[in-house]
Structures are given as C-alpha cells and as structure tokens.
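new request in #modeling-help
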Amino acid sequence: MTWISKSITGLGLVFLAHACYSAHEHSALLSGSAAAISSLTAQTAPVTAALPLDISIETIVAVFTICLGLVLGTPELRPIQWRVWAGKIEREGEYGFMNGDGEVDKDFVGNPFRVLESRPGFVDIRKQRKEFAEWVREGGNGQAPKS
Amino acid sequence: MASSLLHPPLHLPPTVALQLSQQAPALLQSTPSSISPYSVSSIWSAAESAELWTIYENLMVSCLRTGDEPSAHLCLQRLTARFGADNERLMALRGVFQEATAKDDAALKTVLEEYEKIIAADPSNMPVTKRRIALLRTLQKPTEAIGALNQLLESSPTDAEAWAELSDLYLSQGMYSQAAFALEEVLLITPNAWNMHARLGEVLYVAASSNEGGADKNLSESMRRFCRSVELCDDYLRGYYGLKLTTKRLLKDLATNSRQSKSETGLPAPDRKTVERLNELATAKLSEIVRRNLNGEKGWTGYEKADIIAAQELLNRDATPIIR
C-alpha cells in the first residue's frame, strides 16, 4: 500500500514543480517582452499579467494529488472506543501494536490495569523465587504455572 | 525486546523471566557503569534516558526471581549511585533484594525490623510501608498484614494497588464479603478496569460457591460484574468464561427452586430468559475465540495458551450431555 501512496505523492510533486516552473517562465517571458515594448513606445503602463488557465489548473490538480497521496499513506488509525481498544489488547497482545519493523511500539503498555493484579509494590519475591525454582525442577519448558 | 523490560515483569511466565534475566549480563555490560553529567558524548546525545532506570529496576526483579543475584546487585548498585541510598523507592528495592537473599526466617525478621525502623523515622514512606506489609504476608502473618494495610489505606484511600492487595489478603483468609468490598473500592478508583470487574465477578462466584448466606444474590451480582467486564472489553476471554460459568449455575438454580428469592436490598434477580440468552452469547463467543485462536488467525493470537485450553475444556464439558 505504501508504494501506491508514495508514487502518487511523487507524481503530485512533479506536477507542482512543473507548474511553478511554467509560472516562472511565463512571468519572465512576459516581463521581458513588456520591457521591450515599453522601451519602444516609452509608455509606463504597469504590467498586469494573468497566469494562463492551464498553469492554474495544473497547480490545483498537483496540490490535490499530493493531498491524496499523503492521506493514503497514513498509518492505520488507532481505536478510540474503549471496548474496541481493550479488545484489541486482549485479542492481539503486543503483536497488534507492532510497527513495520516488527518492533513493538514504544508507548505500548498492554493492559494498564494489570498492575492491579501483579501489584509490583507488594511483590512477594520469595514466593516468586520458589515458583521459578519449581518450574526449573520440573524440566523448565512445560506449561507455565498460573501465578 | 527491551520494550518488555519497561513494564513490571511479575506477571510474566517463567520462560520470559528466564529470557529477560539471561540478557542481563550483556545489557549491563553494554550500558556504562556510571553516568557522569559532564562527558564529551553528552554534547550530541542525552546522557541518560528515563527508560534506563525503569529497565534497571525491572531487570533487578527478574534477576532476583531467577536467582541471578550478582546481576541484581549490580542493578541495585547503579540505581543507588544515581539516586542515592535514601531514596524511598530505592529503600524498598533494597528491601526486596535483602528479602530475596535472606537465608532463613531469622534473617527475614531482621529485614522486618529494619523496615520498622525506617517507618518509625518517616511514617510517610509509602514504598517501605508496602514492603513491610508484603513481608508480613511472606512470614505467614496475614492478620497483622491486614491490620497494617487498613492503617495504610486510612491515610491514603485512593491507592488502588493497596485496595487490590487487601482484597487478595481477605480472599486468602476466606473473608469473601470483605474481599468483594475492597474490590469495589478499587473499581471506584479505576471504573474502567475490565480485569478488575472480572476479578470481582470471580470473587463473588467463589463466595456463592462457598455456601454462605446470600448465594443467590452473590451469583447474580457476579453475573452482572462479568457482563460489565465484557462490555468494557470486546472478546474478553476471562469475562466470557466467567459469564458462562455463572449463567450455567444460575440456570440450574432457577430450575431447581422456581421460587424467586426476593432480596430485600439491591437489584432483583435476573429473569430466566435473560440468563439463557447471556449463556448462549457466552458459549458462542467462547467457541469463536477458541476456534479462531487455534486456527492461528491474524489478530487472535494474543490470548494465553492456558486460558484457551481452560475455555476449551469448559465448552467440551458443556457439550457432552447434548451428544449423549
């Protein structure tokens, strides 16, 4: 999906650059010829040069193309409903919050209320050690005991 | 991988704990042993990140759990070098280290005395107060722990963690109504915590199973709590599991005694039709979760293996009478 959005954005930028260049060329040409005319006729009329319609259209189209490309390239939106967000955490675990490189997002916290059940302030470290030692004695790779 | 070190590691299964503590030596070696605020490299990069200290703290607990005491001691040393020995949080962490390495109960008692000395000097030292309560629990003195915890909660009644611990202590003593009350206090502080709603449902279900007075009321209340937990969290396995258990029992109870026990206080008992529909919903949801998880569908792989097996067993137990 990303290459589509990137190529559309790139195309829009090319159009925009072309429109800018055309506008610049147009004004340079016009002022050059106007200067030539004014030197001939010695008139001091102000040069009011309207851009041709095709350059304006190209600019507008280019801007909209860039917008389209950027919108297509946005990452997936995060859920904003509590139950959807919570369900995503429960259902997908940290795999649901990985970015493209397979790394979990820095701000991923999982279930923020899990600390109310693990309670790090009241940790019974001796019990944890005993459970771990038992797990090692049982072979060390079986089913994790429920804590 | 470092991101998982940013969260308290207590709930992790032993495999992950082992994995975390195994990378401790490498991690400790790769980070500088002391961070001076005036170094050349601090010109182009921050000398320290806030995450580093969280990692040290969690790494220390993981190492203590797996028995890697040298690494844990190194973590503690670095934290002490950074924050000073009289930091309240570090006092508690040092206590954890001493508790873990204590040889026998006599050694634990000296740790307890140390805690009491610290609290006597500064009664507002919250982390050490919590450690003292945890140590009392370790020493098999639950009544004293409950007393101390109640005292703590009197001075800071908005501490959800302490209320949750109190509920767990009451539950270990078989005092179900008190445990439920403490959990209700937790829910007053964190009303959106779906796992605590499920926890309260479980406590009430246990209370209803223990043949105390008001079993009907507890059971329907438990069902309501599980309903709330699945309302707060889509596809919540634990919530649907509890919902199925409670509705099954409620249906049996409603069938055996048709008289509707009118409870004087609180909500009326749920009517049969609602319970039946909730039971069907829970069964459907549970089987969907189990099926999709076992098929390894994308976005359904986050459940615990043990939870899935338990749900499968519950479904099978329920399905056999129909086959016969």
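bot summary: The CA atoms of residues 116 and 132 of chain B lie 8 Å apart.
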